[in-house]
Amino acid sequence: MREAGYPTFPMQRVCPFDPSPGFQKARDQGRFIKIKMWNGELAWLATNYDDVQQILISPSFSQEPLRSGYPFPTKTRATMLMTERPAMNQLDPPSHTKYRRLFARLFAAARMEKMRPRVQAIVDELLAAMLAKGSSGDLYTEFALAVPSRVMAEILGMPLEDQAFFQEMARTRFTYDDDNFEEPLAAGKKVWAYLEDLFIKKEATVTEGDDVISRLITEQIRPGHITRDEAIVHIRQVILASHDTTANMIALGTLLLLTHPDQLELLKSDPSLAGGAVEEMLRYLTIAQFNSSRVASEDVEIGGQLIKQGEGVIASIAAANRDPEMFDEPDKFDIRRDASRHMAFADGIHQCIGQPVARLELQVVFARLFQLMPNLKLGVDLDKIQFTGNSTAVYGLISLPVTW
Asked: How far apart are CA 60 and CA 300, in angstroms?
């Protein structure tokens, strides 16, 4: 159904650290409002924390984009999801369950925690390299991008020299410019071809190994539990998502602290606050912009609103993470807050599978960054910082000039 006169989605950000004020306006109008998507189709927008959580965990809502009524935020996103082979975050049970169980073991929190010393070594090496170059640099390109690239290369068992390729592909993949939607599709094909070649080479040689790709080959592909293509489609999603999200959380989190000196001083004086600071950054920033589209697979009532089968829903995680009914003074950045109930990684069966890696990287970064660079400052005025805006799946920065 196409109608005019409704707020359009995506809603535009105004303040670089805050979600769109349109979410608060929507909340003021009621727990659910109708919004208009890029193609004129209507969907429901949920902004209340409890409603968003219920939608994300309810089996009455589907994540599969081929279902009629699924709300696509942009033309590019629609083209990608309608034409490409779906990764696990675009599948419902039982298909989703099969892959989720398999990959969850490979990225389990206990397994990732064993990498903490190695992640700290990587962070320290990258910061030492910046310090050795002089007294200024770009924290985004020289550090924030490099951390997830290095860490994921070691976790997955990929050559370190290909970091730049994946950084470029991730940024291209998640830029939803509807005037040039062929580039994200081409980036996906390039990454697929790279991974296919890597898998074939490893299949010919690997006999054992603890990295993810080696384990997939020896434990899943060779015994016939999954095919090579099944492994590649999910690994591609993990690689691309992990690069852009963690890199932008590092850069935006650093900028957030630099513009909130009281919170920065708390962290400097007590690095043990890094864990809580990371959770508050995840809540406050909520940089994943388009990961909460759902479509009702049956009639269902949420928060007193009947949502009919085939109606699309945007369950706004950014709005939920600023809901005053859940978080006191939600627009205040406070690293001492208990932000553990945030939904920055979504919720339910489609909760981000890579969150143990992301949390580990962010905890190490913000425990070390201001210890090794205690005089870190912005290299330009805040109004000169360039942000990616609303056409990207992951909100973030283009660069972050700093001095130390």
From this structure: 7
% the chain with pLDDT above 90: 79
Phi–psi pair at 314, nearest 5 degrees: -105, 110
Q: What is the DSSP string of 295-359?
A: EESS-EEETTEEE-TT-EEEE-HHHHTT-TTTSSSTTS--TTS--TT--TT--GGGS-TTHHHHH
Q: What is the CATH number of the domain that holds 80?
A: 1.10.630.10
Neighbours of 336 (CB within 10 A): 12
The mean-pLDDT minimum among 189-198, 293-302, 387-396 falls in 387-396
Nearest-CA neighbor of 287 among 188, 206, 362, 187? 362
Residue 2 has pLDDT above 70, yes or no: no
The one-letter amino acid at 43: A
pLDDT band at residue 45 using 50, 70 and 90 as cut-offs: very high
The 3-class secondary structure across 202-230, one letter per residue, is HHHHCCCCCCHHHHHHHHHHCCCCCCHHH
**Mean pLDDT score of the chain, rounded to an integer?**
93
Alpha-helical regions (H) of 209-290 = 212-216, 228-258, 261-269, 274-285
pTM of the model: 0.94
Contact 69, 312 (CB under 8 A): yes
Give me the domain span that covers residue 179.
21-403
Neighbouring C-beta atoms of residue 128, cutoff 10 Å: 11
> Of 211, 195, 216, 218, which Cα lies nearest the Cα of 154?
211
188 neighbors 133 (Cβ within 8 angstroms): no
Mean pLDDT lowest for which of 67-71, 81-85, 179-183?
A: 179-183
**252 inside domain:** yes
pLDDT tens digits, one per residue of 309-349: 999 999 999 999 999 999 999 999 999 999 999 999 999 99
Classify residue 15: in a domain, yes or no.
Answer: no
Task: Decide if 25 contacts 45 (C-beta within 8 A).
Answer: no
Question: Does the pLDDT value for residue 190 go beyond 50?
Answer: yes
**Strand ordering across the sheet containing 42-46:** 32-36, 42-46, 312-315, 293-296, 61-62
The count of structural domains within the chain is: 1
Q: Does a structural domain hold residue 183?
A: yes
Closest CA to 331 of 341, 343, 322: 322
Residue 213: predicted pLDDT: 96
Q: What is the pLDDT of residue 1?
A: 46
Q: Indicate the SS3 state at residue 45.
A: strand
